[in-house]
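Hi D.,

Good news: the full-assembly prediction came through. Inputs first.
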Amino acid sequence: MSGYHRKLLRVDLTSREVRTQELAPEITDAYIGGAGVAAKLLYEETSADTDPLGPENVFIAMTGPFTGTNVPSSSRHHIVARSPQTGIFGESNVGGSWGVLLKRSGYDGLVVTGKADKPVYIAINEDKAEIRDAGEIWGQDTEKSARWLKSQTSPKAAAAVIGQAGERLAPLAGVPHIGTLVRAAARTGLGAVLGSKNLKAIVAAGNGPVPVADPEGLEQSVKSLLKHITTATETFGKYGTGGGAENYEKAGNFPLKNWKQGRWPGVAKINGVVLHDTVLTGRKGCLRCPIACGRHIKIAEGPYAGLDCAGPEYETMGTLGGECLVDDLEAICKANDLCNLYGLDTISTGATIAFAMEAFEKGLITTEDTGGVELTWGNAQAMVDMVDKMGRREGIGELMSQGSRAMAEALGHNASEFAVHVKGLEPSAHDPRRFFSQALSYGTAARGACHNASWSHPYELALTMPEIGIAEPQDAYQVEGKAAFTSILQNLMCVQDSALLCRFTQIGKAVTVNNMVEWMSLVTGKQWDVESLMKAGERVFNLKRLYNTRLGISRKDDFLPPRFMTLNREGEELTNQLPPMGRLLSDYYQHRGWSEEGVPTSDTLRGLGIA
Amino acid sequence: MRVELSQAFEKLIGQPSLEISLAEPIPVRAVLRLLADRYECFAKYLSYQDDAMLGAHLSVFSSGRFMKLGDPVTDGDTLKIFLPVTGG
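Then the structure:
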C-alpha cells in the first residue's frame, strides 16, 4: 500500500542502537498513521509505572499518509510520550517542514527510547540515521542551536530542538521545530522528555520520494480544489490566527484576567489586525500550505527594538495578553519569542503567569518571591520577566515552569480554586462557558484542556459537515445532542491528526470529509469511505482514553475547574452560561459506550477492534 | 439600525459605525446588500450564499449572538461586524 514507507526508525539512546522496524498494514488500516499509530505504540510500549522523565518513557514522532504528498496543508506530524506536565497521555501536533523531511528520509516515524550518557542529537538523512554529539549546543537557545545543527547537517534541514527549558526538565517545555519557519509542538511538556534523555535535537533532511498510489489522480483532485481553498482562507491568511481576537472577545470567548473578567477594551490593541498593520513583515506558511497563517514580525524601536522573529498567534495573544490583561502587543511579541527560544509552551506559560498574578493579588506570593517584580495585572514587563525566569527555571520561575496545578499545590490555601486547568493542562484561549462543546472537549480530551481535540466551536457558529451528520451549526448552549456533536468532531480531529491535515483547511468549508476520503484512497490505494475513516478516528480517540484510564483517569478527572463551573462573568451583552458538566458527561459517556465512570466498556473496545 | 464595525472594516469605510433606517425587519443577507450599495468593499461578501462560507471572511453579532444570513434584523437592533472567528 502507498502512503507509507512501512518503516519506523528506532533509536535507543542507552545502547546507541539505531534500527528500523516494519510498520505493518494492519496497524495503519486500523489507526491510519500520525496520532493514531503513535498512540498505539505508546500504549503498547509504556505502562502505568513509566516515569515520564525516566529512560523508559518513549518519545514517538509520526507522520501520516498525507505528510509529504500534494495534499494541501499536510506538512505536519504528531509527537507523543507520557507527559511530565500532566502525568497522562501527552501529545502535540505541529506543522512546518520537519515531518516532510523525515518522510522524505524514508521513514514514517521515529521511536526514541533510553537515555544518552551525554548530550546528543539524532541526524536523519536519506535512509540513514546517526547519534551525534551535541555538547557544543547544550545550554544554547533553540535558534542558535538550530543554526549550528544546520551547519553540521544541511542548510535545508529542519530541527526539532529543545531550549534551556527542556534541558532543565521544565514540565511546560515544548519542542520547537525550526526549518524554514518556527513551529512549536508545545503542549504537554514533551520538551522535558527529550531533555530527560539528553537528546537536544532531532534533525531531518531527507529529499527522497514519498509513495502515492495514484499521483496523477491526487494532483488532479488537489488542483481542482486549490483555488477554492485559497479563496475560502484568504481573510484568515491575511490576518493570521489572531485576526478574530476582537470577534472572540465580543462573543465572550476570549480569556481575560485568569478567566475572571467579561469585557476588556485592550483586545483592540492585541489582535491580528493590529499586528498586520504595525509589526508584520511577512506571512510564513508550512511547506506547501496555501493558507500561510504564520507571522514574521520586526520591531524597530522601543524596549523590544531589534526583535526580528516569528510573531504570536491567537492562543498566545489570549494567554500572554488577555489572561494577564497585557495590552502591549510588542511585549507579547517579545514574550512569544522568549518562549520559542527557551522552548516553552506559550499557552501554559501565559496561563500560569495569569494564575501567578492572581496569587500575587491575593497575597499568596509577594515581591519577595518574585525577585522584586510587581506581578500585577497588565504589567507587560513583569509578564516578560516571568517568561524569562520560567525559561531559565530561576527563582520563582522554577515553580512556575511546572504549571498552574503544581504551583497551586505548592502555594496551598485556596490557590486550587483559581488554578485553571484540566488534568494539569491549562486551557487554550477559548471559554467553555461560551461553547458547551468546548466544555466537553476540555473535559474529555486525552491531554487535558484542549480545544483542538474537537475544534468544535466553529461548528457551533457557522460551519457544517453534512457527510458526518452536522447539517446545521449546533447552538452553543444546547445540551441535548451536545455529546454526539462533540464526539463526532473529536473523531474527525483524530482522523486529521492521524492522516495529517491542518484544522484550518475546514475554514469556509475549504476541505470537506469527502475530500479527505478521496485523498486517503488516492494516496494509500485502499478504498476508504466516510464510515471507515470516522470509525478509525473513533478507534484512535478511544485508545487514547484507554491509555489514561489505565492510569486511573475517570469521571472525577473530567470536570472543569471551579472557575468555569461556578463563576459567571459580567459584561455588556455577555451571554455566558455555566456548562452543566454532570449532565454533559453522562450523555457523553453513554454516547461513547463508556461506563458511568467514563471508562470504555469491553463491548465498545471489542466493537472497535481494540480489545 | 446601527452597524458597528471592527478595526479592519472601519479602515475600509473610514468610520467606526453607521445608521441605516429599516421600515420593516429584513434578514442579515439584506443588510449586507444595503452595506454593499453604500460601500463597494462589502460587495464581495454578497457572493457567499452559505453561513459557513461567509463565516470564513466576516462575522455578524447582535446582543452577543452570532447572526446567520437568514436571521431577521429590526430597526432598533445593533449589528457588530467583525473579521471571522478563527483561533489557533
